[in-house]
């Protein structure tokens, strides 16, 4: 599906809508903004692995081919920089490596499970406790609802947990960082939503600053400045600084 870069008015509108939303909803808002052929409801129903792939592709076409970050060593507190190629991360969650579902027999009863979607995670997040949230998520992925819980014994729920971990293992993004000071190694979770949202906020801030400077000095409207070719906008800003 064709994806538009997150820039110009599209960038500003998406950031305004995503401001104050949870990370889960931000992912939906940003993807819906750059995939005009898809509505929010459709994006909500995509498996998390597919959502993550599209977020990484969005980062690559809008903010560059590298994921850059910072973390403190959990052992000694030393700061460590992270630089990962988006292409390498995409290879790790290639569709061919991530199964869309699993089927198995449980006490001679056929069971099946699909990948979790954003809609599943949002529904689970509304549960009153972590235990109920986990149960709700598992049941939804198995095509059941909470009313089915009494018919699913404890050992079947445990088997479902194991299958869930197997199904989503390949779509969980991690990197191992090695501390240069104490040699401690630790695995860090990579959240595509975090990387894209951080870059989107920075880009929106820079664009609004450009609008302020150019409108102040040339009297142009916000719409005219935002729709301007980025290179031309940069040239005018360089002239102001000369």
From TrEMBL:
Protein name as it appears in the record: Phage baseplate protein
Lineage, uppermost ranks: Bacteria, Pseudomonadati, Pseudomonadota, Gammaproteobacteria, Lysobacterales
Domain of life: Bacteria
């Amino acid at each position: 599906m064709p994806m538009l870069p997150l820039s110009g008015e599209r960038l500003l509108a998406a950031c305004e809508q995503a401001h104050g939303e949870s990370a889960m909803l931000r992912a939906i808002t940003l993807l819906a903004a750059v995939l005009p052929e898809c509505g929010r409801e459709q994006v909500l129903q995509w498996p998390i692995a597919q959502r993550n792939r599209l977020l990484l592709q969005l980062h690559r076409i809008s903010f560059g081919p590298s994921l850059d970050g910072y973390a403190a060593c959990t052992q000694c507190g030393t700061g460590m920089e992270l630089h990962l190629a988006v292409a390498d991360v995409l290879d790790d969650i290639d569709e061919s490596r991530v199964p869309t579902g699993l089927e198995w027999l449980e006490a001679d009863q056929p069971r099946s499970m699909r990948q979790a979607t954003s809609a599943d995670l949002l529904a689970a997040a509304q549960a009153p406790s972590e235990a109920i949230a986990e149960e709700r998520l598992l049941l939804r992925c198995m095509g059941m609802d909470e009313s089915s819980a009494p018919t699913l014994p404890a050992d079947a729920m445990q088997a479902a947990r194991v299958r869930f971990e197997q199904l989503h293992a390949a779509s969980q993004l991690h990197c191992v960082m090695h501390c240069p000071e104490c040699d401690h190694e630790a695995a860090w979770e990579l959240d595509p939503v975090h990387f894209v949202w951080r870059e989107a906020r920075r880009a929106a801030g820079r664009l609004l600053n450009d609008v302020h400077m150019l409108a102040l000095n040339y009297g142009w409207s916000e719409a005219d400045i935002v729709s301007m070719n980025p290179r031309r906008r940069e040239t005018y800003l360089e002239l102001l600084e000369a």
